Amino acid sequence: MTTIPALLLSALAMTLIVGVRYLIVSGAFAFATNRRNPALYRGLRPQMRREIGWSLASAAIYGMPAGLLAWGWAHRGWTRVYTDIHAHPLWWWPVSVLLCLFAHDSWFYWTHRWMHTPRLFHAAHAVHHASRPPTAWAAMSFHPWESITGAVVIPALVLVVPMHWTALACVLTIMTLMGVTNHMGWEIFPRRLVEGPAGRWLITASHHQRHHEQYRCNYGLYFRVWDRLCGTDRGLGRFDEATDGQA
Ligand SMILES: [Zn+2]
Ligand SMILES: [Zn+2]
Protein backbone atom coordinates (compact mmCIF):
# COMPACT_ATOMS: atom_id res chain seq x y z
CA MET A 1 0.00 0.00 0.00
CA THR A 2 1.31 3.46 -0.81
CA THR A 3 2.23 5.79 2.00
CA ILE A 4 -0.73 8.18 2.12
CA PRO A 5 -3.54 5.54 2.20
CA ALA A 6 -1.53 3.51 4.73
CA LEU A 7 -1.14 6.59 6.94
CA LEU A 8 -4.84 7.42 6.68
CA LEU A 9 -5.74 3.83 7.53
CA SER A 10 -3.40 3.88 10.53
CA ALA A 11 -4.93 7.17 11.76
CA LEU A 12 -8.43 5.76 11.29
CA ALA A 13 -7.52 2.58 13.19
CA MET A 14 -6.06 4.60 16.09
CA THR A 15 -9.13 6.88 16.15
CA LEU A 16 -11.32 3.80 16.43
CA ILE A 17 -9.16 2.32 19.18
CA VAL A 18 -9.15 5.57 21.21
CA GLY A 19 -12.89 6.13 20.64
CA VAL A 20 -13.95 2.59 21.51
CA ARG A 21 -11.62 2.53 24.53
CA TYR A 22 -13.26 5.78 25.73
CA LEU A 23 -16.78 4.43 25.21
CA ILE A 24 -16.00 1.17 27.05
CA VAL A 25 -14.12 2.67 30.01
CA SER A 26 -16.32 5.75 30.52
CA GLY A 27 -19.41 3.60 29.92
CA ALA A 28 -18.28 1.08 32.55
CA PHE A 29 -17.63 3.76 35.17
CA ALA A 30 -20.85 5.61 34.32
CA PHE A 31 -22.69 2.31 34.78
CA ALA A 32 -20.90 1.70 38.10
CA THR A 33 -21.80 5.23 39.21
CA ASN A 34 -25.43 4.65 38.35
CA ARG A 35 -25.49 1.41 40.34
CA ARG A 36 -23.78 3.04 43.31
CA ASN A 37 -25.79 6.26 43.39
CA PRO A 38 -28.54 6.62 40.76
CA ALA A 39 -29.12 10.27 41.77
CA LEU A 40 -25.61 11.47 41.01
CA TYR A 41 -26.06 12.05 37.25
CA ARG A 42 -29.78 12.85 37.45
CA GLY A 43 -30.71 15.70 35.11
CA LEU A 44 -27.31 15.60 33.40
CA ARG A 45 -28.32 13.74 30.22
CA PRO A 46 -27.96 16.76 27.86
CA GLN A 47 -24.57 17.53 29.40
CA MET A 48 -23.46 13.88 29.06
CA ARG A 49 -24.47 13.90 25.39
CA ARG A 50 -22.26 16.95 24.86
CA GLU A 51 -19.41 15.29 26.78
CA ILE A 52 -19.64 12.21 24.53
CA GLY A 53 -19.70 14.36 21.36
CA TRP A 54 -16.61 16.39 22.33
CA SER A 55 -14.84 13.24 23.52
CA LEU A 56 -15.40 11.40 20.23
CA ALA A 57 -14.10 14.45 18.34
CA SER A 58 -11.06 14.34 20.64
CA ALA A 59 -10.59 10.64 19.79
CA ALA A 60 -10.10 11.61 16.13
CA ILE A 61 -7.59 14.30 17.09
CA TYR A 62 -5.71 11.86 19.34
CA GLY A 63 -5.88 9.21 16.61
CA MET A 64 -4.01 11.27 13.99
CA PRO A 65 -0.56 11.66 15.61
CA ALA A 66 -0.92 8.19 17.19
CA GLY A 67 -1.66 6.71 13.75
CA LEU A 68 1.30 8.53 12.21
CA LEU A 69 3.62 7.22 14.94
CA ALA A 70 2.24 3.67 14.75
CA TRP A 71 2.86 3.69 11.00
CA GLY A 72 6.37 5.14 11.50
CA TRP A 73 7.13 2.55 14.18
CA ALA A 74 6.06 -0.33 11.93
CA HIS A 75 7.56 0.88 8.64
CA ARG A 76 10.33 3.35 9.36
CA GLY A 77 11.72 2.33 12.75
CA TRP A 78 10.58 5.61 14.33
CA THR A 79 9.96 5.73 18.08
CA ARG A 80 12.05 4.25 20.89
CA VAL A 81 9.40 1.59 21.64
CA TYR A 82 11.05 -1.82 21.99
CA THR A 83 9.67 -5.35 22.11
CA ASP A 84 12.60 -7.27 23.61
CA ILE A 85 12.29 -6.78 27.38
CA HIS A 86 16.07 -7.33 27.71
CA ALA A 87 16.95 -4.54 25.28
CA HIS A 88 17.26 -2.33 28.40
CA PRO A 89 17.88 -3.27 32.05
CA LEU A 90 14.73 -4.43 33.83
CA TRP A 91 14.87 -1.49 36.27
CA TRP A 92 14.31 0.79 33.29
CA TRP A 93 10.72 -0.51 32.91
CA PRO A 94 9.30 1.17 36.05
CA VAL A 95 11.61 4.18 35.62
CA SER A 96 10.38 4.70 32.04
CA VAL A 97 6.76 4.55 33.25
CA LEU A 98 7.38 7.11 36.01
CA LEU A 99 9.40 9.34 33.70
CA CYS A 100 6.66 9.29 31.09
CA LEU A 101 3.95 10.03 33.68
CA PHE A 102 5.99 12.87 35.18
CA ALA A 103 6.73 14.39 31.75
CA HIS A 104 3.06 14.14 30.79
CA ASP A 105 2.03 15.64 34.13
CA SER A 106 4.47 18.55 33.68
CA TRP A 107 3.24 19.28 30.16
CA PHE A 108 -0.36 19.06 31.34
CA TYR A 109 0.20 21.32 34.37
CA TRP A 110 1.75 24.14 32.37
CA THR A 111 -0.52 23.96 29.32
CA HIS A 112 -3.56 23.64 31.61
CA ARG A 113 -2.49 26.64 33.67
CA TRP A 114 -1.88 28.58 30.47
CA MET A 115 -5.38 27.68 29.24
CA HIS A 116 -6.81 29.28 32.38
CA THR A 117 -5.67 32.73 31.21
CA PRO A 118 -8.89 34.54 30.19
CA ARG A 119 -8.49 34.63 26.40
CA LEU A 120 -7.35 31.04 26.07
CA PHE A 121 -9.92 29.84 28.54
CA HIS A 122 -12.78 30.97 26.33
CA ALA A 123 -11.12 29.78 23.12
CA ALA A 124 -9.91 26.39 24.29
CA HIS A 125 -10.76 25.28 27.81
CA ALA A 126 -14.32 26.46 28.54
CA VAL A 127 -15.69 23.32 26.89
CA HIS A 128 -14.10 21.13 29.55
CA HIS A 129 -15.43 23.30 32.37
CA ALA A 130 -18.92 23.37 30.86
CA SER A 131 -19.35 20.03 32.64
CA ARG A 132 -20.83 21.13 35.96
CA PRO A 133 -20.35 18.80 37.67
CA PRO A 134 -18.27 16.57 35.37
CA THR A 135 -19.29 12.95 34.84
CA ALA A 136 -17.42 9.79 33.81
CA TRP A 137 -18.14 10.82 30.19
CA ALA A 138 -16.13 14.06 30.57
CA ALA A 139 -12.74 12.30 30.48
CA MET A 140 -11.98 13.50 26.93
CA SER A 141 -14.47 16.34 26.72
CA PHE A 142 -12.16 18.97 25.29
CA HIS A 143 -12.33 21.63 22.62
CA PRO A 144 -10.19 20.61 19.61
CA TRP A 145 -7.53 23.21 20.52
CA GLU A 146 -7.13 21.59 23.90
CA SER A 147 -7.20 18.10 22.38
CA ILE A 148 -4.26 19.01 20.16
CA THR A 149 -2.16 19.91 23.23
CA GLY A 150 -3.04 16.53 24.76
CA ALA A 151 -2.68 14.47 21.58
CA VAL A 152 0.97 15.32 20.93
CA VAL A 153 2.37 14.33 24.34
CA ILE A 154 2.64 10.54 24.21
CA PRO A 155 3.70 10.47 20.52
CA ALA A 156 6.46 13.00 21.34
CA LEU A 157 7.58 11.01 24.38
CA VAL A 158 7.87 7.69 22.55
CA LEU A 159 10.18 9.38 20.05
CA VAL A 160 12.72 10.17 22.77
CA VAL A 161 12.13 7.86 25.76
CA PRO A 162 12.95 4.17 25.24
CA MET A 163 9.89 2.24 26.40
CA HIS A 164 9.00 -1.43 26.31
CA TRP A 165 5.59 -1.78 24.69
CA THR A 166 4.10 -3.10 27.96
CA ALA A 167 5.42 0.00 29.80
CA LEU A 168 3.71 2.17 27.17
CA ALA A 169 0.52 0.13 27.58
CA CYS A 170 0.78 0.67 31.35
CA VAL A 171 1.07 4.47 30.87
CA LEU A 172 -1.91 4.51 28.49
CA THR A 173 -3.98 2.44 30.94
CA ILE A 174 -3.17 4.79 33.85
CA MET A 175 -3.93 7.79 31.63
CA THR A 176 -7.31 6.36 30.62
CA LEU A 177 -8.39 5.21 34.08
CA MET A 178 -7.34 8.42 35.85
CA GLY A 179 -8.94 10.58 33.14
CA VAL A 180 -12.26 8.86 33.73
CA THR A 181 -12.21 8.36 37.51
CA ASN A 182 -11.01 11.93 38.22
CA HIS A 183 -14.23 13.25 36.65
CA MET A 184 -16.65 10.66 37.93
CA GLY A 185 -18.09 12.66 40.84
CA TRP A 186 -16.98 10.32 43.61
CA GLU A 187 -13.74 8.97 45.02
CA ILE A 188 -12.81 5.47 43.95
CA PHE A 189 -9.68 5.19 46.11
CA PRO A 190 -9.83 4.45 49.85
CA ARG A 191 -9.85 7.51 52.08
CA ARG A 192 -6.77 6.09 53.85
CA LEU A 193 -4.80 6.46 50.63
CA VAL A 194 -6.30 9.77 49.47
CA GLU A 195 -5.80 11.50 52.82
CA GLY A 196 -2.58 9.64 53.72
CA PRO A 197 1.05 10.33 52.76
CA ALA A 198 0.63 9.02 49.18
CA GLY A 199 -2.38 11.27 48.64
CA ARG A 200 -0.24 14.29 49.45
CA TRP A 201 1.55 13.69 46.13
CA LEU A 202 -0.92 11.78 43.96
CA ILE A 203 -3.96 13.22 42.21
CA THR A 204 -7.28 11.45 42.40
CA ALA A 205 -10.89 12.60 41.96
CA SER A 206 -10.93 14.51 45.28
CA HIS A 207 -8.13 16.76 44.05
CA HIS A 208 -9.44 17.33 40.52
CA GLN A 209 -12.94 17.94 41.89
CA ARG A 210 -11.63 21.09 43.57
CA HIS A 211 -10.23 22.25 40.23
CA HIS A 212 -13.69 21.96 38.69
CA GLU A 213 -15.21 23.87 41.64
CA GLN A 214 -12.67 26.66 42.01
CA TYR A 215 -11.00 26.78 38.57
CA ARG A 216 -7.70 28.53 39.35
CA CYS A 217 -6.01 25.85 41.44
CA ASN A 218 -5.15 22.14 41.37
CA TYR A 219 -4.01 22.11 37.74
CA GLY A 220 -2.04 18.83 37.84
CA LEU A 221 -2.84 15.52 36.19
CA TYR A 222 -1.17 12.67 38.13
CA PHE A 223 1.04 14.33 40.75
CA ARG A 224 0.67 17.32 43.07
CA VAL A 225 4.35 18.24 42.65
CA TRP A 226 3.90 21.29 40.36
CA ASP A 227 0.83 22.51 42.22
CA ARG A 228 2.75 22.34 45.50
CA LEU A 229 5.90 23.93 44.07
CA CYS A 230 3.96 26.76 42.43
CA GLY A 231 1.52 27.42 45.28
CA THR A 232 -1.56 26.42 43.28
CA ASP A 233 -2.53 23.42 45.40
CA ARG A 234 -5.69 24.07 47.40
CA GLY A 235 -6.03 20.61 48.86
CA LEU A 236 -8.77 18.09 48.39
CA GLY A 237 -12.37 18.78 47.42
CA ARG A 238 -15.25 16.95 49.03
CA PHE A 239 -18.13 15.39 47.23
CA ASP A 240 -21.66 16.51 47.92
CA GLU A 241 -22.82 14.23 50.72
CA ALA A 242 -26.45 14.73 49.72
CA THR A 243 -25.94 13.18 46.31
CA ASP A 244 -22.99 10.91 46.99
CA GLY A 245 -24.37 7.81 48.66
CA GLN A 246 -21.13 6.68 50.30
CA ALA A 247 -19.52 10.01 51.10
ZN1 LIG B 1 -11.19 18.07 34.38
ZN1 LIG C 1 -9.18 23.59 33.93
From TrEMBL:
Residues 97-232 form the Fatty acid hydroxylase domain. It is found in: Membrane. GO terms for biological process: lipid biosynthetic process. The keyword Transmembrane applies. GO terms for molecular function: iron ion binding; oxidoreductase activity. Its main location: membrane. Keywords: Membrane, Transmembrane, Transmembrane helix. The keyword Oxidoreductase does not apply. GO terms for cellular component: membrane. InterPro entries: Fatty_acid_hydroxylase, Sterol_Desaturase_Related. The chain crosses the membrane at residues 6-31, 52-71, 91-110. This is Sterol desaturase family protein. It comes from Sphingomonas chungangi.
